[in-house]
Design brief:
The complex is a heterodimer. By secondary structure, chain A is mostly helical. Chain A is about 70% helix and about 5% strand. Classes of the chains: A mainly alpha, B mainly alpha. The interface of A and B includes residues 72, 73, 75, 77 and 141 of A.
C-alpha cells in the first residue's frame, strides 16, 4: 500500500518550497499544489471508505494509513514518526484541502510579494495537515508550532495598520498556550510511565493514571488547546488577529487554526485522559456557556464587519466545546460537524468581508448599506454565508447545530435554552445586518465600486457550493466521522 | 603483536596528531611557512585522526583502518594494575568531538590572511592542544588526567596571545595564563590530598578504597580543590569570570577552539571524576560503592552539582542578555551551555550522560561554528557590536542563514541538533524523577530566556536595514563590505557545520546511537 500520508506531506512540502522560489508565478505553483493535495485527500477518502456504498465501517480498523518509523530511539524513550487518520481527522483534512484551494483562488490578485504570501498560505496548510495526521507527541508538537510561524508572518507583513501588534499578540498567546500543552503532554507521558511518545502507547498508559492526576493534566491540556479555540477569557488575541490579518490569513485562522484546538482536545485530551475529562466537565461547561454568551453578545455590539464575524466565531467554537463536553457520541459527532461547517462558513464570511472592504473601501457596518445594486454577486454570497451561519436548513450550518442542540438536550435538558436562545438572537441580528447592508438605501458607494473580480467570486462560489452540498447530504460526512475508533463512538 | 606495536595501535590518533604538530614546527624551522603547507599538514592530521577514532568506535565503512579491537575497549584495568590510561568508547566519542573542533578551526583558518606571520605557530599549537585533549579522554589516573589537561592549557595560553599584536590578546593571554595556573595548582593540590588520604591516584582504585575507608577530612578537602580547579576549566559559575575576557580578547578562531573544543576537556574530566570510577553517583542504584561507607557522598554531590548547574546557566543567560558585543554575548551563552552539560552530570544516569554528551556535540557544531562565522565577518570589516551586523542578511545571505541556523540550534529550535540534544537531555533529567524534575524545569526556563538574545541578533541581521553610507553605528562600519568572500576554507567549515546541524536535527539517531551506547558502557564501568 502506498504511504499516502507521507506522499501528501512531501507534496505539500515540495509545493511550499517551490512556491517560495517561484517569484511571479507563485500562484500557479500554489494552485497546482492545492489541486494535487485535493486529489490525494480524495484518494485517502476512497482508501478509508471504499466508496461507493460506504456502509459506515472503515476498511482498516483503528487508524487508517498508519505509518511508523523509528525516529529518535533512546533507551528510556522512543520517539517515532507515526502518522495515521481516522474519520475525524479525515473530515478536517478535507476541510484543510478545501480551504487551501479556496484561499489560493480567492487571493489570485495578491500583488504584495506573492511568492511569500502563497508560500506562507501553503505552509500553514502543511502544518495543519501535519497536526491532523500526527500520532506522536513530538511530531504533533512540531507541526503545531509549524502553523504558528507562517501565520505570524502573514499577519505581521500582509496585515492591516495595527498588524505588528496583532501578530505579536497572536504569537505570544498561542505560543504560551502551546508550551503549556507540550508540558501537559510530556507530563502525561512521564507520570504514566509511558516509554514511547506514540499516541497508542501514551493513550494506553495514561488511562491508568489516578483521577486526580488526570484531572490536573487535562486542565493543562485544556488550557493549551483552549486558547486556540479560543475560550473566553483567553480569546482577546482573536479579534485583533482577524481584523488585522489579510483576508487569506483570516480565512485560514478561522477556518483551520481554531479547528486545531478542537481536534487536539478530542484526540489528545478527551481520548488520552478520559477520567480527567469527566472530572473536569463542570469547568468545560462553564467555559463553553461563557464563550457562547460572550461571543454572541459582544458580536452584536461590533461595527466592524470582520470583528463581528470574529466574535461570532468565538460563539460557534463555544458550541463546539459544549458538544465535546457532553461526552456522548452525538455530541462528539456534532462537534466535528460543527467544526467542519464553521470552517467553511467562517471562511466564506471572511472572504465576503474582505471583498466588501476591497469594493466599498470600508467594513464599517454603520456606513455600509444597499450594496446589492452595485455588487449583486457579492451580495448573494454575503447572504449565503450569513444564512448558513445562522443555521438555515439545507445549508451546512443546520445539521451541525441541530445535532449540537439535540445532544445538549439529551445531556443537559433545559440548559439547551441558553444556546438556543442565543442562536435566535444571533439569527435576528444576522437578518438585520443583511437587511441593512444588502437591501437598505445605498450608502457609501464610492464611484469606483464594482462587483467582485472573477477569482474572488470563484473562491467564494466554491465554498457556497460546498455549503449547499453538505447541507443537503450531511451523511457524506456523518458516516465517516462516526466510524472513528474514538472513545464514545461505536467504532468498527 | 609486540608491546611497542600494541602501544602504537592504541595511541594511533595521538601519534598522528603529534606527528602533524612536529612536522609543522619542522617545516617552520626549514623555512617553509606557507599557510597552505603548514595548515594543510595540521588539518590533514586532525582529519586522519578523526577517521581513526571513528573506526575504533566501530563505524563500519572505516573498518579497514581500525587499530583497536572491539575487545580491548571498555575493559577496566585488572585489579592491582595501574596502567594510567584505558580506552573507553565514551572517551573515543569525546576524542571524535575534540578532533572535529580542531578540524573545523584548522580548516577555517586556512582562509586567514596569507601574509600575516605566525601560521606555523598557530597550527603547531593547535595540534599540540588537540593532542592534550585526546590524552585526557584516555586517562584512568588522576595525575595522567591533570597532566594531559596541562598540555592543552599550555598550548592554549600561547594560542590566545600568539599574534603578539595589540594589548587585548596579550591581556587575555595573561589573564588566561594566571587563572589557568591557579586552577591547575588547585587541581594538583586536590589530587595530592586525595593521594594522602587513599594512597593511590588510580581512578578505579580510588573508588574501591573510598568505599571501604569512607571520607576522611583530607579526602573531602581533596575533592573540593579538585572540583574548584576543574570548575575553572569548565567555566562554571562562580569560577567563570575569566572566560568572557579571554574569549573576547583572543583571535576569534582561537575563541572558537576554546569554546567548542578545549573547554570540553573540563567537561570530560567532570564526567570522569564524578560519574566514572571515582565517585560514582548511583542514585540508589544497586552497584553503589558507598553502601558500606560511613555516609553516602553521592546525593550531596548531586545536589551541589545541580545547584551549580542551574546557577551557571542562569548567570550565563542573564549576562548574555545584557551584552552589546557579539563575541562577549557568545561567550556568556557559552557559559550557560556549560550549565546544561553539568545538569547531565548531576543526574548521573546513563540517559543523562548521553544527553549531556549530545549537548556537547551541539555546542561544538553550533557555538564553534558561530565563532567561525564571527571571525569571517569581522574579516570583512564588520565591527564588534551586535548592531554592526545590521542588514547583513541581505548583503551576505548564505553566511547569515548559516549563522541563524547555528543560533537557532543553540536556542533549541526544532529540526536543529540543538533541539534534539535538549530534548534528549531534559527528558533524561525528568526521567530521573525527584527534585531533578525541577532542575529540568529550570533548564527549560533558561532555554526560553536564551531565545530572547538569539532572537535579537536575528532581528538585527535580517530585519534591520544596513546603516546608511558613511554613518558610524556604535563601532566602525564601512558603508560597503569588500567584495571578497569568507575564503574557501572558512566557507567549507561553516557549510559542513551547518549541514551537520540540520541533518542531525532531522535525524539525530545517527549520532545518538553511538553516544548512547558509549554512555551506558561508561556507566557500567563505574558500577
Amino acid at each position: 500500500m502506498l504511504p499516502l500520508i507521507s506522499i501528501v506531506l512531501a507534496t505539500l512540502a515540495a509545493g511550499t518550497a517551490l512556491t517560495f522560489l517561484a517569484g511571479a508565478r507563485a500562484r500557479w505553483v500554489a494552485l497546482a499544489t492545492s489541486i494535487a493535495f485535493l486529489g490525494e485527500v480524495a484518494l485517502m477518502f476512497l482508501d478509508y471508505t471504499g466508496w461507493p456504498g460506504y456502509a459506515g465501517t472503515p476498511l482498516v480498523p483503528g487508524f487508517a494509513e498508519q505509518e511508523t518509523h523509528a525516529w529518535i530511539h533512546l533507551s528510556w524513550l522512543q520517539v517515532n514518526y507515526t502518522v495515521g487518520v481516522d474519520g475525524i481527522s479525515l473530515v478536517l483534512i478535507l476541510l484543510t484541502a478545501i480551504l487551501q484551494i479556496a484561499t489560493v483562488v480567492y487571493s489570485w490578485g495578491e500583488s504584495k510579494r506573492p511568492a511569500g504570501y502563497f508560500g506562507l498560505v501553503l505552509l500553514t496548510c502543511f502544518g495543519s495537515f501535519g497536526v491532523f495526521v500526527a500520532l506522536d507527541v513530538l511530531l504533533f508538537f512540531l507541526f503545531w508550532e509549524a502553523v504558528l510561524v507562517p501565520m505570524f508572518f502573514l499577519i505581521g507583513y500582509w496585515g492591516g495598520p495595527r498588524r505588528r501588534y496583532a501578530a505579536l499578540k497572536f504569537f505570544v498567546y498561542t505560543h504560551v498556550a502551546s508550551i503549556v500543552m507540550l508540558v501537559g503532554l510530556l507530563a502525561t507521558v512521564f507520570y504514566s510511565g509511558a516509554t514511547s511518545l506514540d499516541f497508542a502507547a501514551v493513550d494506553a498508559s495514561a488511562r491508568g493514571l489516578p483521577a486526580i492526576d488526570q484531572s490536573f493534566l487535562f486542565l493543562a491540556l485544556f488550557f493549551g488547546f483552549g486558547v486556540k479555540f479560543p475560550i473566553v477569557p483567553f480569546h482577546t488575541w482573536l479579534p485583533d488577529a482577524h481584523v488585522e490579518a489579510p483576508t487569506g490569513g483570516s480565512v485560514l485562522l478561522a477556518g483551520l487554526l481554531l479547528k486545531l484546538g478542537g481536534y487536539g482536545l478530542i484526540r489528545w485530551g478527551v481520548e488520552v485522559l478520559p477520567t480527567g475529562f469527566l472530572h473536569d466537565r463542570p469547568v468545560l461547561f462553564a467555559v463553553a456557556f461563557l464563550s457562547i454568551a460572550w461571543g454572541s453578545v459582544v458580536s452584536l455590539a461590533q461595527r466592524d464587519l470582520k470583528r463581528m464575524i470574529a466574535f461570532s466565531s468565538i460563539n460557534h467554537m463555544g458550541i463546539v466545546l459544549l458538544a465535546i463536553a457532553l461526552d456522548s457520541s452525538l455530541g462528539l459527532l456534532a462537534a466535528v460537524l460543527l467544526m467542519f461547517a464553521h470552517g467553511i462558513v467562517s471562511a466564506l464570511l471572511f472572504m465576503s468581508a474582505g471583498s466588501v472592504h476591497h469594493t466599498f473601501g470600508t467594513r464599517d457596518l454603520a456606513s455600509l448599506g444597499g450594496i446589492t445594486p452595485t455588487a449583486p454577486v457579492l451580495a448573494t454570497i454575503v447572504m449565503a454565508g450569513s444564512l448558513a451561519s445562522l443555521g438555515l436548513p439545507a445549508l451546512i450550518g443546520f445539521p451541525a447545530e441541530f445535532a449540537a442542540l439535540l445532544a445538549t438536550w439529551q445531556g443537559l435538558q433545559y440548559w439547551v435554552l441558553i444556546p438556543l436562545g442565543i442562536l435566535v438572537v444571533t439569527a435576528a441580528f444576522y437578518l438585520w445586518m443583511m437587511q441593512r447592508m444588502l437591501f437598505g438605501p445605498a450608502r457609501a458607494v464610492p464611484p469606483s465600486a464594482h462587483d467582485v473580480p472573477w477569482f474572488e467570486g470563484v473562491g467564494m462560489g466554491l465554498l457556497v457550493g460546498l455549503t449547499v452540498l453538505f447541507g443537503i447530504l450531511p451523511s457524506l460526512l456523518v458516516n465517516v466521522i462516526t466510524s472513528s475508533p474514538v472513545h464514545g463512538f461505536p467504532g468498527p | 603483536m609486540t608491546d611497542a606495536a600494541g602501544l602504537a595501535a592504541t595511541f594511533a590518533p595521538e601519534i598522528v596528531v603529534l606527528a602533524a604538530a612536529l612536522l609543522v614546527f619542522l617545516l617552520d624551522v626549514l623555512g617553509v611557512r606557507r599557510l597552505e603547507a603548514v595548515g594543510g599538514v595540521a588539518v590533514a592530521g586532525s582529519g586522519l585522526a578523526f577517521l581513526l577514532v571513528l573506526a575504533d568506535l566501530g563505524f563500519a565503512p572505516l573498518a579497514a583502518i581500525r587499530t583497536i579491537g572491539a575487545g580491548a575497549i571498555n575493559v577496566a584495568p585488572a585489579a592491582g594494575a595501574s596502567p594510567l590510561y584505558f580506552v573507553s568508547s565514551f572517551g573515543l566519542v569525546f576524542q571524535a568531538l575534540f578532533l572535529a573542533a580542531a578540524f573545523f578551526v584548522g580548516l577555517a583558518s586556512l582562509s586567514r590572511d596569507p601574509h600575516e606571520p605566525g601560521a606555523p605557530i598557530f597550527y603547531g599549537l593547535l595540534s599540540l592542544a588537540t593532542l592534550g585533549m585526546l590524552l585526557v579522554a584516555l586517562a584512568s589516573d588522576l595525575i595522567f588526567l591533570l597532566l594531559a589537561i596541562e598540555i592543552t592549557s599550555l598550548a592554549t595560553y600561547l594560542l590566545v596571545g600568539y599574534t603578539r599584536r595589540g594589548l587585548r590578546p596579550l591581556e587575555a593571554a595573561m589573564k588566561f595564563y594566571i587563572i589557568g595556573a591557579v586552577s591547575s595548582t588547585l587541581s594538583f593540590f586536590g589530587a595530592s590530598l586525595l593521594f594522602g588520604a587513599y594512597g593511590t591516584t588510580d581512578l578505579f582504585r580510588l573508588a574501591a578504597v573510598a568505599g571501604s575507608v569512607g571520607y576522611p577530612v583530607l579526602a573531602l578537602l581533596g575533592y573540593g580543590f579538585l572540583v574548584a580547579g576543574l570548575a575553572f576549566k569548565t567555566t562554571l559559575v562562580p569560577f567563570h569570570a575569566w572566560a568572557v575576557d579571554v574569549y573576547d580578547g583572543a583571535p576569534t578562531d582561537v575563541s572558537a577552539f576554546l569554546a567548542g573544543g578545549s573547554k570540553k576537556v573540563g567537561v570530560f574530566a567532570f564526567f570522569l571524576v564524578f560519574l566514572g570510577p571515582v565517585l560514582f553517583v548511583h542514585p540508589g542504584g544497586p552497584g553503589n560503592p558507598f553502601s558500606g561507607a560511613p555516609f553516602d557522598l553521592g546525593p550531596i554531590t548531586q545536589l551541589l552539582l545541580g545547584v551549580l548547574a542551574v546557577l551557571t546557566m542562569t548567570v550565563g543567560n542573564v549576562l548574555a542578555l545584557l551584552q552589546k558585543e557579539m563575541k562577549r554575548l557568545l561567550a556568556y551563552s557559552s557559559i550557560s551551555q556549560a550549565g546544561y552539560m553539568l545538569l547531565g552530570i548531576a543526574v548521573g544516569s546513563p540517559a543523562s550522560l548521553a544527553g549531556a554528551t549530545f549537548q556537547v556535540l551541539t555546542h561544538v557544531l553550533s557555538k564553534g561554528g558561530a565563532f567561525l562565522v564571527v571571525a569571517g565577518v569581522a574579516g570583512l570589516g564588520v565591527g564588534p557590536l551586535v548592531d554592526d551586523w545590521r542588514g547583513l542578511g541581505s548583503r551576505r545571505p548564505l553566511t547569515s542563514v548559516a549563522f541563524a541556523l547555528m543560533l537557532l540550534s543553540l536556542a533549541g529550535v526544532p529540526l536543529t541538533i540543538g533541539f534534539a540534544s535538549k530534548f534528549v537531555l531534559f527528558s533524561a533529567v525528568v526521567d530521573a524523577r525527584g527534585y531533578f524534575v525541577w532542575l529540568a524545569v529550570a533548564g527549560l526556563l533558561n532555554s526560553a530566556l536564551s531565545v530572547f538574545y538569539y532572537a535579537r541578533i536575528l532581528k538585527v541581521v535580517f530585519l534591520q536595514d544596513p546603516a546608511p553610507a558613511g554613518a558610524v553605528v556604535g563601532g566602525s562600519e564601512p558603508a560597503e563590505l569588500p567584495a571578497g568572500g569568507l575564503g574557501y576554507g572558512r566557507a567549507a567549515a561553516i557549510a559542513i557545520a551547518t549541514v551537520a546541524i540540520v541533518a542531525l536535527g532531522v535525524y539525530p539517531q545517527f549520532a545518538l546511537g553511538p553516544i548512547q551506547a558509549a554512555a551506558s558502557h561508561f556507566y557500567a564501568l563505574g558500577a
